[in-house]
From TrEMBL:
It is a lipid-anchor; GPI-anchor. Residues 39-63 have a biased composition (Low complexity). This is chitin deacetylase. GO terms for cellular component: plasma membrane; side of membrane. GO terms for molecular function: chitin deacetylase activity; metal ion binding. It catalyses: [(1->4)-N-acetyl-beta-D-glucosaminyl](n) + n H2O = chitosan + n acetate. It is an enzyme of class 3 (hydrolase). Belongs to the polysaccharide deacetylase family.
C-alpha cells in the first residue's frame, strides 16, 4: 500500500522540518488553561538534548510554509484567521440533544441515560485541581486497586519538567517512561492493526467548540474517540451525552490533566477515579480506555490504570522524530502556527504510507483553533485521501463493537477486562492477597508503592502469575 499521489505535493519554504515533531514533554503546553500545576515547567524549546527526543526550537511565527491539501472544507475558516488569540466566534448549537432516560440502542445492555440536570457539581472535587486523596470515594478506589493484588512498581514519582529535569529516570529503561524514549508495553494501544485504518481521537474536551466538531463529524458520518477531562464533563455534561448518543467512543483523560508520572499512587488513583466516576454519572457506563495527558506514562501509572480497568491508549510513534502529534494544541498559545500543524499532518501522511498497519493521531477539541484546523483542513484532506482511510473510533479499529468500550457492557468473554489482559500479557504481576495472613514471609522485590503498600511484607505469598518481570520488556 505504498503510493505517491501528485495531489499531495508539498511545497515547503522553511528552514527545516526538524521543528515538526517534538515529543510530548511534560508540561509542554504553555497556554493550557487547566494546568495550574504546570505553570513553572519549561517550554518545549528548553528540552533540546533529551534522551530519545528530537526536540528542537519551535518554528518562528514568520516562517512561511505552504502545504497543498487534496481537499479542504469549502466553508473552512481561512488559515490566516487561525491564529493565537483570535477573536472567538459563535459556536454551533448541538445538532441533537440527548434525551435523559432514553436507552442507547447501539450498545446492548446499556442503561438508560441519566438526567444531566441531576449532576451535583458540589459533590465532586474542585475543577482543574488535583482531587484530595482522603475522601471516602478515593479511599474506596485505593482499596479497589489493592484488592486486585496488582504489584505497583516501586518507582519514585518524576518531578515536573520532563526528561531534562529527570535525567536519571529518563535514562532508566526499566521504568518504561514513554515521555523519554517512547517506551510502550504490550497492553498499550498505539495504533490500529489494519493498514489505512485511522483510529480518530480528540482530547481535552468537552468544550465550547466540541459542538462545531460534532457538527462536521455528523455531516461526514464520522465517529471518533473522545478522551475527556473530568472537570470539563462537569461543565458540559449535555455535550458528553450527545457525543455518546452519537455513537462516538468516550474514554478517560483524567480529572485535572496533570502529568501522571509526577503524582503519588494515591493521587493517580484520585485523578483516574474521579474522571471515571463523572463519566459514569453522566452516561451510565464506565469507559475502559484512558489516555495519559502528554502521553506521560510509565510502568507505575500503567499498573494503576490497568488495575482500575483502564487500558492506556497512546498515539502512533515510529521514531523519535515521527510521533503522530499534529501539535494542534499549540496554535492557541502561539508556540506554533496552523501552517506548521498542516506540515506536521503531511509528514504524518508520509509516514502512514510506509506502515503495514493503521494509526492513531493526537488532536484536540479544546480550542477553537484545533477544531478549525480539524474540520477545515485535516479531516477534509483525510477524506479525500487515496487509497481511502477507514476513519473510526479506536475501539472500532480494534475490530470491536462500541459496547466493548465500557466496563458494564463489554463482553467479558471476548474482551477480557484490562487487568486480565495485562496479566496474560505479562505487563503486570499480582500478589496473592490473603487477608488472614500476618506472617512475615513477604518478598523484598514487591513495590512499596508509596503509602499504598500494595505488596506489603505482611503478605504471606507473592506469586508472579506469569513469571515475568515488567522491566524485561525493552523497547
Ligand atoms: C515521517 O515524519 C518525519 C517527521 O515529521 C519526516 O521528517 C519524514 O519525512 C516523514 N517520512 C515520510 C516517508 O514522509
Ligand atoms: C463484565 O464484567 C463487569 C464487571 O467487571 C460487569 O459489570 C459487566 O456487567 C460484565 N459484562 C457482561 C456483558 O456481563
Ligand atoms: C460474547 O461473545 C461471544 C462470541 O461472539 C458470544 O458467543 C457470547 O454469547 C457473548 N456473550 C455475551 C455475554 O454477550
Ligand atoms: Zn490532553
Amino acid at each position: 500500500m505504498r503510493f505517491s499521489s501528485p495531489s499531495l505535493a508539498l511545497v515547503v519554504a522553511l528552514p527545516a522540518l526538524v521543528a515538526a515533531h517534538h515529543e510530548h514533554i511534560v508540561g509542554r503546553h504553555p497556554g493550557h488553561p487547566i494546568e495550574a500545576r504546570q505553570a513553572t515547567t519549561p517550554s518545549p524549546s528548553s528540552s533540546g538534548s533529551v534522551v530519545g527526543t528530537g526536540t528542537t526550537a519551535a518554528p518562528t511565527p514568520s516562517t512561511t510554509i505552504s502545504v497543498s491539501l487534496a481537499s479542504t472544507n469549502p466553508t473552512a475558516v481561512p488559515l490566516t484567521a487561525i491564529v493565537s488569540n483570535q477573536p472567538s466566534s459563535a459556536t454551533k448549537p448541538l445538532d441533537s440533544t440527548a434525551v435523559p432516560g432514553s436507552t442507547p440502542t447501539f450498545i446492548s445492555g446499556a442503561p438508560p441515560l441519566p438526567n444531566p440536570a441531576t449532576l451535583a457539581p458540589a459533590s465532586y472535587p474542585t475543577l482543574d485541581r488535583l482531587p484530595p486523596i482522603d475522601s471516602p470515594e478515593v479511599q474506596e478506589w485505593i482499596q479497589e486497586v489493592k484488592n486486585t493484588g496488582i504489584v505497583i512498581p516501586d518507582l519514585e514519582p518524576t518531578v515536573a519538567g520532563g526528561c531534562p529535569a529527570n535525567a536519571a529516570f529518563a535514562a532508566d529503561q526499566s521504568r518504561c517512561w514513554w515521555t523519554c524514549g517512547g517506551c510502550v508495553r504490550d497492553t498499550d494501544i498505539t495504533d490500529c492493526p489494519t493498514a489505512m485504518d485511522w483510529g480518530l481521537t480528540y482530547d481535552d474536551g468537552p468544550s465550547f467548540y466540541t459542538s462545531n466538531l460534532l457538527s462536521y463529524l455528523d455531516e461526514q458520518n464520522l465517529k471518533s474517540t473522545f478522551f475527556v477531562v473530568g472537570s470539563r464533563v462537569i461543565s458540559f455534561p449535555a455535550i458528553l451525552q450527545t457525543q455518546y448518543m452519537g455513537q462516538h467512543q468516550i474514554a478517560v483523560h483524567t480529572w485535572s490533566h496533570p502529568s501522571l508520572t509526577t503524582l503519588t499512587n494515591e493521587e493517580i488513583i484520585a485523578e483516574l477515579g474521579w474522571s471515571r466516576k463523572v463519566i459514569k454519572d453522566v452516561l451510565g457506563v464506565t469507559p475502559n480506555m484512558m489516555r495519559p495527558p502528554y502521553g506521560d506514562i510509565d510502568d507505575r501509572v500503567r499498573a494503576i490504570s490497568l488495575a482500575m480497568g483502564l487500558i492506556p491508549v497512546m498515539w502512533t510513534r515510529i521514531s523519535p522524530l515521527a510521533t503522530f502529534d499534529t501539535d494542534d494544541f499549540n496554535i492557541h498559545g502561539g508556540s506554533t502556527t496552523v501552517e506548521q500543524v498542516l506540515l506536521n499532518w503531511k509528514n504524518i501522511l508520509g509516514n502512514v504510507s510506509t506502515l503495514d498497519h493503521g494509526f492513531i493521531v493526537l488532536e484536540h477539541d479544546l480550542f477553537e483553533q484545533t477544531v478549525e484546523v480539524a474540520t477545515g483542513y485535516i479531516l477534509p484532506d483525510a477524506l479525500a485521501h487515496n487509497p481511502p482511510f477507514k476513519i473510526q473510533p479506536v475501539v472500532s479499529c480494534l475490530n470491536k463493537g462500541l459496547s466493548e468500550a465500557y466496563i458494564e457492557t463489554n463482553n467479558n468473554s471476548t474482551n477480557p477486562p484490562a487487568l486480565a489482559a495485562a496479566i496474560s500479557a505479562g505487563v503486570v504481576t499480582t500478589t496473592s492477597v490473603s487477608p488472614s495472613s500476618t506472617g512475615s514471609g513477604g518478598t523484598g522485590n514487591a513495590g512499596t508503592g508509596g503509602a499504598l503498600g500494595l505488596a506489603s511484607p505482611s503478605l504471606a505469598f507473592m506469586i508472579s502469575l506469569v513469571g515475568l518481570v515488567v522491566g524485561a520488556y525493552a523497547v
